[in-house]
């Protein structure tokens, strides 16, 4: 009987296909792909360039010998990620954390939608009496959602984002809601000036990624269905910036106002976020991809590819803005224009941070952009890249999309120099590094996304 059904299905498939393609090799037809420039990003057309120190290496570091390499096309944020943009990430994590805690407590109390109070925030798979579930939801609940995982018994269960969170304490619907909201804040004993502060250690973003490099290099199995889980990595990351970096980075210096106000106050909304370590920057990239694709799914559109940190080679190529062998994004060799104005935010003179018009950072869209319409590729804040730092890496990396990314190497490349650096670090070829778990008041980041579509290279123009 099974053989008969299989044969019938095969014949039906052949007949149905034959009626539309006339037996020709026409391929599988999908929707026509039209590249869409991501919001706030500029296209960096791929091509070849001379990576490394074309000028004299004044510091005699000798870690950036010249090398001709080629990179593929990609999009890059026109500015560093700002405080306002990173706060969107924080608010999303906070909202999801609160909703998760409400849903779990509703589940423990047997509350469901329609019962009022905390029940309105129950998991979406919770149904009221008499409500029918779809075959898909029934199957997923029986085989996955009800089982969870060893690490999370609620894994896979969907949050209900429809009801709005209530912020007015006098309008909390029941004591369970009060309990959840109270758990998100520091104890009363730790509050001062009449303000209760949210416990930022509760703001954890967990995401899963696949270590494709490790899988590809595994000679025993490679990427196979049975071994796929071996390469899946789950990263729980506390995402709130370390605002104390403003204090810790500078001994015997008064920077408390920056610690108190820089990240959260609207006055600094368009300034680059700092105090974010490499892992937090990677988590932001994962969230940005998740957030965008949730919208794409809702609109029934094709998913976009991942946002990520740029490789060191991509960053230098983008910083040059199409200028070969230039010292700075604007060319050079000077850091002032013909009217005597500084072209970036850095420390121009010994002890004089404000000669360029700013003591600390400036707004992310300050100064003139380079040839690819990218702002502050030199100065303002140094930027994380995806690459690991090795003084000898230029000697062995590929000449095609070069990248030295080693999980065991915790030293990650930062580029561009910052508001507290001298002009040497502003040079597009200067390499610097910081430990992945370190957060600094002078390090931020920007993201990139691979370009998909018709061939687009700067060398072909």
From TrEMBL:
It holds the Pfam family FGE-sulfatase. It comes from the Bacteria. SUPFAM superfamilies: C-type lectin-like. Residues 115-134 are annotated as: Disordered. Residues 40-448 form the Sulfatase-modifying factor enzyme-like domain. InterPro entries: CTDL_fold, Glid_motil-assoc_lipo_GldK, Sulfatase_Mod_Factor_Kinase, SUMF_dom, SUMF_sf. One of its GO terms (molecular function) is formylglycine-generating oxidase activity. NCBIfam families: GldK. This is Gliding motility protein Gldk. It comes from Flavobacterium akiainvivens. The lineage of its organism: Bacteria, Pseudomonadati, Bacteroidota, Flavobacteriia, Flavobacteriales.
């Amino acid at each position: 009987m099974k053989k008969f059904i299989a044969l019938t299905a095969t014949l039906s498939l052949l007949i149905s296909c034959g009626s539309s393609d006339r037996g020709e090799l026409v391929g599988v037809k999908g929707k026509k792909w039209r590249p869409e420039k991501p919001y706030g990003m500029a296209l960096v057309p791929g091509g070849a360039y001379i990576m490394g120190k074309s000028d004299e290496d004044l510091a005699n570091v000798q870690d950036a010998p010249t090398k001709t390499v080629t990179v593929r096309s990609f999009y890059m944020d026109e500015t560093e990620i700002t405080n306002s943009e990173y706060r969107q990430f924080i608010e999303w994590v906070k909202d999801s954390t609160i909703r998760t805690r409400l849903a779990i407590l509703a589940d423990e109390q047997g509350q469901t939608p329609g019962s009022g109070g905390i029940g309105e925030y129950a998991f979406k798979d919770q149904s009221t009496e008499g409500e029918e579930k779809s075959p898909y939801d029934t199957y997923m609940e029986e085989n996955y959602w009800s089982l969870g995982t060893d690490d999370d018994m609620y894994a896979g269960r969907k949050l209900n984002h429809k009801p709005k969170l209530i912020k007015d304490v006098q309008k909390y619907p029941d004591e369970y809601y009060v309990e959840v909201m109270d758990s998100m804040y520091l104890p009363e004993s730790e509050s001062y000036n009449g303000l209760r502060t949210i416990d930022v250690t509760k703001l954890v973003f967990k995401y899963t990624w696949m270590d494709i490099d490790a899988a590809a290099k595994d000679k025993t199995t490679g990427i196979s269905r049975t071994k796929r889980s071996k390469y899946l990595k789950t990263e729980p990351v506390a995402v709130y910036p370390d605002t104390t970096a403003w204090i810790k980075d500078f001994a015997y210096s008064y920077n408390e106002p920056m610690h108190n106000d820089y990240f959260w106050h609207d006055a600094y909304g368009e300034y680059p976020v700092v105090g974010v370590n490499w892992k937090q920057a990677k988590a932001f990239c994962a969230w940005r991809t998740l957030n965008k694709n949730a919208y794409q799914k809702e609109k029934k559109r094709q998913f976009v590819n991942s946002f990520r940190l740029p490789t060191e080679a991509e960053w230098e190529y983008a910083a040059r803005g199409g200028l070969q062998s230039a010292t700075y994004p604007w060319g050079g060799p000077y850091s002032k224009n013909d009217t005597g104005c500084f072209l970036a935010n850095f420390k121009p003179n010994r002890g004089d941070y404000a000669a360029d018009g700013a003591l600390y950072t400036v707004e992310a869209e300050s100064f003139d952009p380079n040839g690819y319409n990218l702002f502050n590729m030199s100065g303002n804040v140094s930027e994380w890249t995806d690459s690991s730092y090795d003084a000898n890496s230029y000697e062995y990396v590929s000449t095609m999309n070069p990248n030295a990314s080693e999980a065991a190497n915790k030293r990650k490349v930062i580029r561009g120099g910052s508001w507290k650096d001298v002009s040497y670090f502003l040079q597009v070829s200067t390499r610097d590094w910081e430990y992945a778990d370190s957060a600094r008041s002078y390090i931020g980041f920007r993201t990139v996304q691979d370009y998909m579509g018709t061939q687009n290279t700067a060398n072909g123009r």
